[in-house]
Amino acid sequence: MLVRLMSFDKALSVARDNRLNRNIFNDEVCICGIGRHDIPWGKQIIIGNDLKDEWYNVGDWKVPSCLFEYEIHPSNKDEILRYGKIITDDSVLSDVGIFTRIRLISCDGNLWYHKMINGKVVECKGVGKPNV
């Protein structure tokens, strides 16, 4: 799953709010022993599954899940379908055997139009924000 580590400064604030260990090592502020230059803060990384565990390996470091930001991009159509909440799910089978399925999916704070033909995603685009 594609996620983004928070920037170091944002992670420091979240660590404070979550009462995580913050300390100074060699004149550098650290979060759970992880310094500003130890891992790719603010960068996208891939982890093995969704953010259900409490800690994840990033290089040689164990990072608490609260320091990740879940991120889905329109280019990753499978994640939108996998992790989103399906709002509508319509399908039609044409006379010539073409099966078309169109879904409206709420995911990552956005609404997505998701179209499949014969099981293959052919279109996926953001169409707005859900009403809350």
Describe the structure.
There is one protein chain. The chain has two domains: 2-70, no CATH class; 77-128. With 132 residues, the protein is mostly beta strands. The longest helix is centred in the N-terminal third of the chain and has 10 residues, at 8-17. The chain has helices at residues 8-17, 77-83, and strands spanning 2-5, 22-25, 28-31, 34-35, 44-46, 55-58, 61-64, 68-70, 85-93, 99-107, 110-117, 120-128. The strands form four sheets. Strands 9-10-11-12 form a four-stranded antiparallel beta sheet. A three-stranded antiparallel beta sheet has the order 5-1-8, with no helix packed on it. The mean pLDDT is 82. It is built from two helices and twelve strands; from the N terminus they run βαβββββββαββββ.
